[in-house]
Design a protein that fits this description.
Immunoglobulin-like, about 5% helix, elongated, mainly beta, Methylamine Dehydrogenase, Chain H
């Protein structure tokens, strides 16, 4: 029995030794693997999110082969400046447009090792005031800007003669070369133009109003008689918002639409504004007050009955702006020194310019009496009830506390004539004669 155990032990020990000896003899050193470095594929930029950018916005670059596992992706502005991306994938790169990128025309390229994409250009505009040159030296009457668009819509005079007028609508569109003029498909001469946004707007001439919700690629139109609007280019765009527009005439007539001219309501002029073929009344302003009501302001002079220079004020009130007008005043004497281009946001504070004394004046009693707000003023433009802009000399000043204090806003070229200052929530645009056109991004 002991012999059997001894034999078994010897066999097991030998097997174990053999096994260990076999394992040791099988160990061989591993062959090192050399990494395969892949050359970058051709880099292609297919699109930019926008060719026109404002400082603070993001630029998204789309394309292919933006990433290589062996080499970093380098972004080059104007071929030399390296910038850091917010996001990089093989088909998309996002960068922030900061003050480090110059205003004006810029290019971007993507580089991986020695492989470079083609250049893609974009234009950067900085915060603050910028001179616009897209309309050359035309007299620019009005402009509109919007927070959700880089476009500028303007109405300008194509006739350089002092006593002639050929009004045309124009659009400046953001491109990789700046704000460039693109043509609006409306040939002819016009009297007024206003856009609510990039697509919806109103355009008028002497006897017709045009309404569009497609940037005037298409439009609806309505015409009027000479008794409805006797003046050349006398259809004024008095009110425009998301719900309706009102076009008015100096005779106190209105064209109302709530669906871009698909349906129209016309309110004929009051009979008392004329005596036979003589038009004795002139409505110069129609606007909505903060109390929700609409007001027409103007003057009346019955030359046949009363002789010349017997002008009286006109104040009319309506809940709709195109119907149910109530005459509030045709009795009080009008001040012949004043411009009748009245401006107001609240009917309890109406502004105009005293042309004789070159002063800004205000009325708190619906044109009956006037008080001087500021001297040496050529024109006024209201942004809010407390924030007003004026032209004084060749400067624009602003008050943000209803005239208590004034700050210099913009210096203008010598002998500038400002026709309009218009506002969005974050933009201001100045329009004037001889190509005067300034945009402020706040």
């Amino acid at each position: 029995m002991n012999k059997k155990l001894l034999l078994l032990s010897l066999i097991l020990a030998g097997g174990l030794f053999f096994s260990c000896s076999s394992d040791d003899s099988g160990n061989k050193p591993e062959t090192p693997v050399t990494p395969v470095v892949k050359d970058p594929l051709p880099i292609t930029i297919t699109a930019l999110s926008s060719e026109f950018l404002i400082i603070g916005q993001d630029l998204e670059i789309k394309g292919i082969n933006f990433v290589n596992k062996d080499y970093p992706t380098v972004l080059l502005i104007n071929d030399t400046e390296k910038i850091t991306a917010k996001e990089v994938t093989d088909t998309k790169i996002v960068i922030s447009v900061t003050d480090a990128i110059k205003a004006g025309i810029n290019s971007i390229r993507i580089q991986i090792n020695k492989t470079l994409s083609d250049r893609s250009n974009f234009f950067v505009i900085k915060k603050g005031w910028t001179k616009l040159n897209g309309l050359g030296s035309y007299d620019i009457m009005t402009s509109n800007v919007f927070d959700d668009s880089n476009s500028v819509f303007s109405f300008a005079d194509n006739d350089i003669r002092d006593f002639s007028f050929w009004g045309f609508p124009a659009k400046l569109q953001g491109t990789s070369e700046g704000l460039k003029r693109v043509y609006i498909k409306q040939l002819g001469s016009y009297g007024a133009f206003k856009m609510l946004n990039d697509q919806s707007g109103v355009l008028t001439n002497t006897n017709e109003a045009f309404y569009s919700d497609s940037g005037f690629e298409t439009n609806n139109s309505t015409s009027v008689t000479s008794s409805f609007s006797p003046a050349i280019n006398g259809l004024n765009i008095s009110y425009l918002d998301q719900n309706m527009s009102i076009v008015s005439t100096f005779r106190g007539a209105q064209i109302y639409t709530k669906d871009n001219g698909a349906t129209i309501i016309k309110n004929e002029p009051p009979v008392w504004t004329a005596r036979g073929n003589f038009y004795r009344a002139s409505m110069t302003t129609l606007a909505k007050s903060t109390n929700g009501k609409f007001y027409q302001l103007g003057v009346i002079n019955d030359f046949i009955k009363e002789g010349s220079n017997k002008h009286r004020n006109i104040v009319m009130e309506s809940p709709t702006g195109y119907s149910d007008w109530t005459v509030i005043d045709t009795i009080t004497k009008a001040n012949l020194d004043l411009s009748y281009g009245y401006k107001f946001l609240n009917i309890n504070k109406v502004f105009t310019i005293d042309n004789t004394n070159k002063a800004l004046v205000a009325s708190t009693d619906m044109l009956k009496t006037w008080s001087v707000v500021k001297t040496d003023v050529k024109s006024i433009f209201l942004r809010t009830e407390t924030q007003w802009y004026i032209q004084s000399g060749d400067k624009i000043y602003v008050t943000k506390d209803a005239g208590a204090t004034w700050e210099l806003e913009l210096e203008l070229p010598a002998e500038s004539v400002v026709n309009d200052i218009s506002f969005s929530k974050s933009k201001i645009i100045v329009s004037g004669n001889k190509g005067l056109h300034y945009l402020k991004l706040e």
